[in-house]
Amino acid sequence: MDWSDGYKTDVTYAITFFRKMAPAHMAFAALMRRQQAPDPAKPFRYAELGCGQGLGPLILAATHPHAEVMGFDFLPGHVASARALAEEAGLPNVSFREDSFEQAAALPDDAVPRFDIIALHGVYTWVNEDNRRAIVRFIDRRLNPGGLVYISYNCLPGWAPIMPFQRLLIEHARRHPGASGTQVLGAMTFIEDLLDRKLEYFTRNPRVAQHIRTAATRNIRYLVHEYMHTGWAPVYVTDVADALAGAKLSYLCAADVDRTVTQSALPEGARDALRGIEDPVLRELVHDFAVDRFFRADIYVKGPRPLTSAAQHRALRTLKVAPVVPRATMGGPKTPEGGEDTTARAVLYDPIADVLADGPASLGEIADRTGISLGMVVSACAVMVGRDWIQPVVPGIDPAPARRLNRVLADHVLTGVPIVNMAAPLIGSGLPASDLDLAALDILSREDVADASDLAGRLRARLQAAGRPVVHDGKTIDDPAEAERHVAERAAALYGEQAPVWRHLGLL
Ligand SMILES: C[S@@+](CC[C@H](N)C(=O)[O-])C[C@H]1O[C@@H](n2cnc3c(N)ncnc32)[C@H](O)[C@@H]1O
């Protein structure tokens, strides 16, 4: 085995940020479970293991100038581009180490500090067992008491029927050496052909056929990174809890802040079954069976610190949230059938959204202004955070570093680098952003824009100067008239609806 331990390194990973990894999001999830978490408004140290091209550490460092952030990845190309972006954006509080997990776990005591949060996303079940053990050793040595771990992974039972498909795919690839992209395409063609031949495995497992048909529509980058690593192995929530127990960690909660609310939307039988289970990890395992879950993002704690009910109530009352999308985008919660619960929308969600249309507000303020109980406001806001309509606020952040980073991201996206987020200082997090969004933010922050059609003209000029096509939902729009219409529509939405939100969030 080479230095990559079976991890495919010839196709770079997409440059993305995951909002559940933001300290304020984790603190909100912990608070919902009556637990204390590191305060994102105070100095803290944060490490991301397997940080890819570093957008996570870059956005967190830019939106928390008082924190020290470190990214670890063994791919030199990832580390080099992350370091270049940090330097360009002038972010002194982020650094990147080109270490494998084994190397990171074995670093001498004084080589890196101890952290308050260690996070890993899309890593744990994509690397082999030796690397998983090294990750746990790193956490054991480097996490402060009271510190949190964010860990996401492919889980069972959701993946159970699909696992033989992945095995078939890598067995075919192993016997057809070449670039990973070519291997994965070859293997997919081979498997799709088998699918057409109605082999018994596919016939008995209709979900597998559906999974393969969907996989066939995904891009090569996704296919390589989802299926081609030889260490790939989904696990049960109990496996992760057992492994992390070795580093003195206990399960705190799912990273989804709306988990307690969405749980109440389960069918009655499942709800009853869960209610009877005391052990939190066993309850999660049964919940995974209840929804046939295939992906989890969880928070673990080294030394839980429960809050009293009074302290939780106080913290929830003062917790501020901010809208991250225009008012018109917000709606109501989903019904168990997947539609919209219009009653809940009218009596609960719309009044909250109306208050937030004026800008960020504390949950207590929302309760006072709407006359809705704090408990109901908390539940609704948890759902709204889950839908990414609003996010918790980190008070007192200097917006300058995030604005510098966004300018650099806008420059790079116009050279074709696939960046899909921008930094949002008020919430200590990132927002999804297309290249048009990043370019528009940059134009609005530097230039005097008269109106939406002026913005559209400037956007077109930027794209033209950079030689970039107009792209929508990942697809290039070839027809010039259609491209022009798309830019005009997007400019109108950005100028009229999104820019006021960006202003509230400190992006402008
Ligand atoms: C699927 S990517 C996830 C990147 C990023 N966390 C994200 O979600 O966008 C996994 C990352 O882990 C890194 N990685 C894989 N095996 C590793 C190892 N043994 N040591 C250090 N990094 C590793 C890869 O280079 C890659 O950047």
TrEMBL record:
Residues 48-147 form the Methyltransferase domain. One of its GO terms (biological process) is methylation. SUPFAM superfamilies: S-adenosyl-L-methionine-dependent methyltransferases. Residues 221-302 form the Methyltransferase regulatory domain. It comes from the Bacteria. One of its GO terms (molecular function) is methyltransferase activity. Keywords: Methyltransferase, Transferase. This is SAM-dependent methyltransferase.
